Fold this sequence. Notes:
InterPro entries: LysR_HTH_N, LysR_subst-bd, WH-like_DNA-bd_sf, WH_DNA-bd_sf. Belongs to the LysR transcriptional regulatory family. This protein is of the alpha/beta class. The chain has helices spanning 3-12, 22-34, 37-44, 48-62, 78-105, 118-123, 125-133, 160-168, 216-221, 232-243, 258-268, 276-285, 314-326; strands at residues 67-70, 73-76, 111-116, 137-138, 146-147, 152-157, 174-177, 186-200, 224-227, 254-255, 271-275, 289-291, 299-307, 331-332. Helix 2 crosses helix 4 (48-62).
Amino acid sequence: MTEADQRTSASTAPPRRERTSLALLELLVATDRHGSISAAARALGVSQPSASAGMRRLERHLDLELVTRSTRGARLTETGRAAATWAREVIEASDRFETSAAALREAPSARIRLAASLTIAEYLAPRWLATLAAPRATGGPAGPEVPTPAPDVELLVRNSRTVMELVLADEADLGFIESSTMRRGLRSRTLARDELLVVVAPTHPWASRRRRTATVDELLGGGLVVRERGSGTRETLEKSLLAAGARLPDHLPYLGSTASLKTAVQYGGAVAVLSRLTVADDLARGSLVQVDVPGLDLSRRLRMIWKDGTELSTAARRIAAVAAGSAGTSHSRTARSPTIAR
């Protein structure tokens, strides 16, 4: 087509109409879905007169009879129902656009700092990060597929006490702890239930007992090795002992990692109290043996924490949702958690 032909075509083309308001299209779709303008008004949270006036504006704009009105109310005509079908596609496309734009707004280079206690960092956090790294796209069959970049995550591994301090100091966006004690200024959500187990090597005398049990006194005097102060595992053990009328001796050997405790048990004849998460494979292989200690309740909660009043970023909310969805049961410590995706 020559330039002259293009000018001629442009001059003969019909004038471009003003685009139809999305709000009016939503009204049309709601009327079709709910059966009447009054029901659509209730669903959209607008008054009946406003909805009726909006429908009249839409009819004038489209120059179509969309509604038949009678003393029993107003209902869509065949033309109105057909228009509602097309309007629904426009609204869905608009929703896809907004979702895609939101994904693009989240800066791919934004760095999220997490802090997690040792058990969670070693046995749960890797699953969450793998889920986040999996390919994910927004959009739909009729819309653009916009890859959602995985957040750039830095994971700090500390004991539960230090994790809480980091979150309170704004040095971590989210924290994950095993401690039952909560610092003021924090909110929490339970991710999973956990249990501590007393474990020994297969060659330990307790392992050959018929019922594989030990008393609290035997536990405290039988070569127990523990985590450092501030550890959620140690705190759970201390509280369980107090409830049973006992306490940890003042000068027990302590080690700073789960791996070192397991080594002390397997090769040094020690006794340790460790999370079921950390010893499940060892128990299955037979390299560790569980010993029951009647009278000790060693159950605990694994929790996600965030600073009270903090508005989490989109990336942090996404991590929170993955953790809450994959870690198991959820039970909020507080009823109000507006910034955590549920």
